[in-house]
Structure formats: C-alpha cells, structure tokens
Amino acid sequence: MAPLQLTILISVVLIAQLTIFAAVAFYRHWHSFTELKRRLAIWEGHPENNLPLPKTPVPPTDKLAWTDLREFRVDRKVIENKQQTLCSFYLVPVDGKPLPAFKPGQYLTFHLPSADPNKPSIRCYSLSDKPHPDHYRVTIKKEPSGRGSTFFHEQVQVGDILKVKAPAGQFYLDTAETGPIVLIGSGVGITPVLSMLNISLGHSPQRPIWFYYGVRNGEEAIMQEHLNTLATQYPNLHLYLCHSQPKAHEIQGTDYHHAGRIDITLLRLTLPLKPHQFYICGPQAMMDTLVPNLKDWGVPDLHIHYESFGPASPTQSSSPSKHSQSSSDLTVTFSTSGKTIPWQPESASLLEFAEGQGIRVDFGCRAGACGCCTTTLESGEVTYTRTPEAEVNSNTCLLCISIPKTHITLKA
Ligand SMILES: Cc1cc2nc3c(=O)[nH]c(=O)nc-3n(C[C@H](O)[C@H](O)[C@H](O)COP(=O)(O)OP(=O)(O)OC[C@H]3O[C@@H](n4cnc5c(N)ncnc54)[C@H](O)[C@@H]3O)c2cc1C
C-alpha cells in the first residue's frame, strides 16, 4: 500500500473512532441531563420547595396507606443470626384486611408502651422484605441499653398486639427505572436494601444489581443463605459479602467474598463504569466517608441515596463545626420553661441542645422521620440539616434535625 493510501486509511480510522467516542459521550451526557430535568420537575412540583433539594425523589402525591395507628399481631419471631442480636418480627393486621404495598426501603413507625400512657415511645423500623398482602416483616437489632429494641427482643411475644403507623419514608428504590443499581447495607443497615433487593428482583428480574453487605463476620450476618441463593438464581445479581473481622474458620470465596469494610476502593475495583444509582444504609462512620468518596469519584449527587438509622447525615450542609462561624451569637428562647440560652454551635441539633439544658422535649426517631419532636416555632427561623420526612410548616420545626438560623423562640 502506497504511503498516501496508508495515511488516508489511518486518518479515516482515527476520525471514525473519534466520531464514535463523541457520540457515546454525547449520549451519556444527554441521558444524565434528561434524568436531571425529570427529577427537577418532580422537585419543583413539591410544595416544600424552600427546603434543601432532596437526595431521593419526593413522592408526588403519596398518601399514607392508613391514617393514625393500625393494630398488628406478632405472628412470628425469628432470630436471624448466630449472635442472636437480630430478630425478625412478622406482623399480621388485626383487622384481617389485605395490606397495601410499600415502596422498597420504607419503614414502619411503632408506638410502644411507656410509663406514661399518653406519651408512647416511638421507634421506626424498616420493612425488610417485599410486600405480602397478609404480613409485614421488620428486623430489629438489639442495641445495648436500647429501650425500644430491648423491648422488642425481650418483651414482645408471639400473639402480642402492636400499634403501627403506615409505611413511610423517602429513602426508596425507584422501581420504574431499570438501570443498574448498587445496594449497600452495613450491619443492621441491610434491612431497607434487602427489601429493595427482594422487590427489585420480583419486579425487574433482569435489572443489574450489585449488592454489598458488610458485617464483622458470619456470626453477625443475617440471611446469607437467602442472598447466596438469589445470587445463584439471578446472574445479574453481583453479591459481595464483606467481613471486616472474619473468623479463623471462615474461608474467603466460600463464606464471604471480601475481607475488609465496604469502601470506595472495593467499589472502584468491582463496579463496571456505568451510571449506577447507589442506595446506602449503614453506620455513621461508613456514611461519613463513603458518600463523599463516591462524589469525589464523580458520582452525581442525584445518584446517591442514603439513610442512616439515627441523627447521622453525611452530607449535612451544616456540620456543627461549620455552624460555628455564623451561629455562635444566636440565642434560643424556650418560652414554656422561661429560659433564653446562647446557642451552642457544637450541638448537632436543637433537640440535643434542649436536652443538654434540661428542657423536656419529646422525641422518637431522632432523624426527622416520625414527627415526635415537632415543636411550635414562635419566632425566628431554623435550618434543616437533612430533609424532613415528617410534615413541617413555617410555624413548627423538627428539633431533631434543625439548628437555629436566626434568634428563635420555641414553645418548650
Ligand atoms: C427510618 C429508620 C429506620 C430504621 N430501621 C431500623 C431497622 O430496620 N432495624 C433496626 O434495628 N433499627 C432500625 N432503626 C433504628 C431504630 O429506630 C432505633 O433507633 C434503634 O432500635 C435504637 O432504639 P432503642 O430504643 O433500642 O435505643 P434508645 O433507647 O433510643 O437508645 C439509642 C442508643 O443509645 C444507646 N444507649 C441507650 N441508653 C444508653 C446509656 N445509658 N448509655 C450509653 N448508651 C446508651 C443505645 O445503645 C442505643 O444505641 C431505624 C431508624 C430509623 C430512623
């Protein structure tokens, strides 16, 4: 072949490659852009649009499946792990009517008996399975000195009646989508992502799923057999059981897949380069590093959905240290108690601040979900450190996830 012909051939091949590359890049960007527009449209339709942009789509007109409380009978109690720290409760409705479906990742709110019958203890527990018309399942970890979880493990017996609010929560999997998803559950944080997994496989069996489950070792783990069976049945399910402190008898490749915690290195090594949606639930330490690391890796905010079972929120726009510059000179007045106290910026929330001052306030989930700490805001404004799930308006605030923005007066 003459040099000129060779040059032309190389040029044509190069131009063809560049064209294909540009077309693929354009398609990816266009896809992300249209997705962003779709979510923005949902957001703009939301009435609380003075709140920070939610990390997950806000359900447009979702109503609770029932109002107030519904009675459920404990049908079965199943200890799930060798350590006996996690127990599943199967709950059947006392009224015998079929149960409504819920969104994968949502939770139930329980009103538990307390010393004062007018002030129940309120605790939230994620639904840990797919919907069944005749029962719900929650899986509860017994926390050392934890009142609610110890009550469930030690006091609640088969046949007992529990009062339960309808499934709720904004941390849920969008089953209308079929793109690849990464489900990450660490410790008891497996519960909502397990529900997502079970529902997703039933709904879209072909959907590519990467499932990471982090525990210290097999004695702490739950439902490993179930997960292994699913991974065998569904070639599109990529399962990673991660043991941070495997027992001497546990064999990598048989009992678990990865020795160590779930971190960004593991994700980067195991995930193909695709626009995944990430759903994460785990302890604060994991969320605090994993969520920012995913962002550094280039995962867009809108692709990262997370929940922690407590006050933690990794992307709090306002960590206590950040508040300090702007809010150290603010005061909080508790009108019922007749106290005006300078705000302490190191307090994570108004709830924590009030408790530290000996002011009696109600609380439940400490995560902006149950609405128990809703308090009248007589004057001033607050900033939310995470998107409230319970209903709020301009005259009230959820103490557990808010800090003062201006001088404020609370009816407490
Ligand atoms: C949306 C949502 C979903 C959830 N889903 C689940 C789920 O699926 N499964 C699950 O197990 N949990 C779940 N939780 C957490 C659950 O709601 C409770 O927070 C958890 O069970 C602890 O409640 P408790 O009453 O046992 O502990 P609390 O009595 O409220 O105590 C809270 C923590 O403080 C510690 N503590 C209590 N007293 C002391 C003391 N004297 N000294 C030192 N430490 C102390 C306890 O160990 C506990 O860790 C969820 C929470 C939310 C917000």
List the helices and strands and how they pair.
Elements (H helix, E strand, L loop, with lengths): L2 H42 L25 E10 L6 E8 L13 E6 L8 E6 L9 E6 L5 H9 L5 E8 L12 E6 L3 H14 L5 E7 L8 H10 L3 E7 L14 E2 L4 H7 L6 E5 L2 H14 L6 E4 L12 H8 L3 E4 L4 E4 L7 H7 L17 E6 L2 E3 L11 E3 L3 E3 L3 E3 L2
Parallel strand pairs: 7-8, 7-11, 8-9, 9-10, 11-12, 13-19
Antiparallel strand pairs: 1-2, 1-6, 2-5, 3-4, 3-6, 13-14, 15-17, 15-19, 16-18
Bound molecules: flavin-adenine dinucleotide (FAD).
Overview of this structure, please?
This protein is an alpha/beta fold and 412 residues long. It has three domains: 70-168, Elongation Factor Tu (Ef-tu), domain 3; 181-307, Rossmann fold, CATH 3.40.50.80; 320-410, Beta-grasp domain (Ubiquitin-like (UB roll), Roll). The chain is built from eight helices and 19 strands. The protein has helices at 3-44, 147-155, 190-203, 224-233, 264-270, 284-297, 320-327, 350-356, and strands at residues 70-79, 86-93, 107-112, 121-126, 136-141, 161-168, 181-186, 209-215, 237-243, 258-259, 277-281, 304-307, 331-334, 339-342, 374-379, 382-384, 396-398, 402-404, 408-410. Strands 4-3-6-1-2-5 form a six-stranded antiparallel β-sheet, with helices on one face. A six-stranded parallel β-sheet has the order 10-9-8-7-11-12, sandwiched between helices. It has a five-stranded mixed β-sheet with strand order 14-13-19-15-17, with no helix packed on it. Strand 13 and strand 14 (339-342) form a beta hairpin.
